[in-house]
Amino acid sequence: xxxxxxxxxxxxxxxxxxxxxxxxxxxxxxxxxxxxxxxxxxxxxxxxxxxxxxxxxxxxxxxxxxxxxxxxxxxxxxxxxxxxxxxxxxxxxxxxxxxxxxxx
Length: 104
Known about the structure:
By secondary structure, the protein is an alpha+beta fold. It has helices at 10-31, 76-90, and strands at 38-48, 51-60, 65-71, 96-98. The protein has two helices and four strands, in the order αβββαβ. Strand 1 and strand 2 (51-60) form a beta hairpin. It is elongated. The termini are far apart. 7% of the residues are buried.
């Protein structure tokens, strides 16, 4: 912009980012391809500051990460919360949901 004779301060750039950032993010999200109809769900325990947490992850058959949630519990409600969030975000129910079906 300086080459065109416009002197723009960093504060102007910050205001543009605040104003137009959410709109640009919305357009980019809409351009994302629709995920596949087979979802793989998995969980793993991670230690943060000495406490155990469960990292829930959903991936489609193409390897695209759909969602990640970090929670302190591993129960049915936590898994349902992840699935409901995924279905609301993408707007459809997958044909298959694959888990490792192991207690670990």
